[in-house]
Structures are given as C-alpha cells and as structure tokens.
Amino acid sequence: MQTVTNAPIARHFEAGMLSRAMAAQGRRSCGVGSVRVLEKDEELFAEGDPAVFFYRVTEGVIRTSKLLSDGRRQIDAFHFPGDVFGVEAGDEHRFSAEAATAATVIAYRRRDLDELHFDETFSREVLDAVMHALERAQRHMLLLGRKSAIEKIATFLVDMAERLDGDDAIELPMSRLDIADHLGLTIETVSRSLTELERKGIIHVPASRRTIVLRDKAALARLNG
C-alpha cells in the first residue's frame, strides 16, 4: 500500500527472487532479517502488539489500519514492494497490519538497528522509505479533512497510477471496501464516484472492476488539486 527505476527495480527484483525461493518454508533467516510469507487477509501484527520488528514489503500489498471506537475501520496506508512500515516511536504498534493481497515481507528486529547502521546503503534506504511514508501520511490527512468524495477518489487514482508504474490502465490490488475505509467514505459513495468519473469520460471501469483505465489524467490531476 511506487514508481521506481534503475537501482530500486534491481533491489525489488532481487528481493522477489529471494522471497520466492523461501516461500515454501514460510519463514527463514535472511541476514539480519527474516522472510514472512502471508496469505490474503492474514494478520501480520495487531494494534497494541509489542513493536519488536519493523518490516519491508518485497511482494504484494500490506494494509495498516485502526479500529475506531464506533467499530469502523480506518485504513491508514497501503504498503507496496519497497515500502518500510511498522517503525514505531514507542514500544507498541499503533495500527494493525494485514495482507491486502498474498504478500511477502522481510522482518527486521528493532534491536538490530545498530547493526543495520553498518550497512550505509540499507540504512539510507530505510530512512528514505520512512520519509516517503511520512509524506504520504501528511497527504492522506489533508485528503480526509478537506476534499470532496470525487476529489478523494481522483487523488487516490492519481496516487495509485504513480505507485503502479504510471500506466493508463491500473489494476487495483485492494477491494472497494478497502478503498472506502482508506478514504473515509462508504462503499456506495466509492461506487457512485467512480460511476460519475466514468460518465464524464475521465476514467473507464471494465467488467473486471479491479482495473481502472485513466482516460483523462489532466482532469484527474485538476480534481487532485
């Protein structure tokens, strides 16, 4: 729950090769990290669990979420290959994390951070990933507070297009319910907004309904603000 080029692509490819080679064993040591293979909707950690590990996605998509006091779910973020998540300031996880799709992550013990500092390249990658996550969180806060339903959907689609290689046809790895819980909308509002954007010729929603064709990116960008 990104557009990457050159060196990052090589890293994602190598990580994918590694995780596939270890997938049959589910979890196994990988240097200072260990590979975790998750089925769709499988929980990685729950809100309030000890924050012993932080994680890096190598395949699939992870969603982080929080249950509100009224029982509603708020999805904080979707983490895609290369993303680092679960880095906490305190001793407990503030969100739950589940696999939005079948996914593979590498788990690193927080106590091993000192050892990771010896690997300057990896330390820089972790810092960059955390800073990008912070930037996305700030944009998400603005989106929830100030934008209309149509603008929220447009912003979401622009972001997904960027994170899914910027193609005109994007296959969303999450359900419409996930999208609704991420944007603070109902699933009915998500469907109506997509239908409205399609009626205006800005997008096209094929029968598969997970694929969105972006017909007018300029119009989406204007709605995105």
Automatic annotation (TrEMBL):
<dbReference type="InterPro" id="IPR000595">
    <property type="entry name" value="cNMP-bd_dom"/>
</dbReference>
<dbReference type="InterPro" id="IPR050397">
    <property type="entry name" value="Env_Response_Regulators"/>
</dbReference>
<keyword id="KW-0238">DNA-binding</keyword>
<keyword id="KW-0805">Transcription regulation</keyword>
<protein>
    <submittedName>
        <fullName>CRP/FNR family nitrogen fixation transcriptional regulator</fullName>
    </submittedName>
</protein>
<dbReference type="GO" id="GO:0003677">
    <property type="term" value="F:DNA binding"/>
</dbReference>
<keyword id="KW-0804">Transcription</keyword>
<dbReference type="InterPro" id="IPR012318">
    <property type="entry name" value="HTH_CRP"/>
</dbReference>
<dbReference type="GO" id="GO:0005829">
    <property type="term" value="C:cytosol"/>
</dbReference>
<dbReference type="GO" id="GO:0003700">
    <property type="term" value="F:DNA-binding transcription factor activity"/>
</dbReference>
<feature type="domain" description="Cyclic nucleotide-binding">
    <location>
        <begin position="38"/>
        <end position="107"/>
    </location>
</feature>
<dbReference type="Pfam" id="PF00027">
    <property type="entry name" value="cNMP_binding"/>
</dbReference>
<dbReference type="InterPro" id="IPR036390">
    <property type="entry name" value="WH_DNA-bd_sf"/>
</dbReference>
<dbReference type="InterPro" id="IPR014710">
    <property type="entry name" value="RmlC-like_jellyroll"/>
</dbReference>
<dbReference type="InterPro" id="IPR036388">
    <property type="entry name" value="WH-like_DNA-bd_sf"/>
</dbReference>
<dbReference type="Pfam" id="PF13545">
    <property type="entry name" value="HTH_Crp_2"/>
</dbReference>
<dbReference type="InterPro" id="IPR018490">
    <property type="entry name" value="cNMP-bd_dom_sf"/>
</dbReference>
<feature type="domain" description="HTH crp-type">
    <location>
        <begin position="147"/>
        <end position="218"/>
    </location>
</feature>
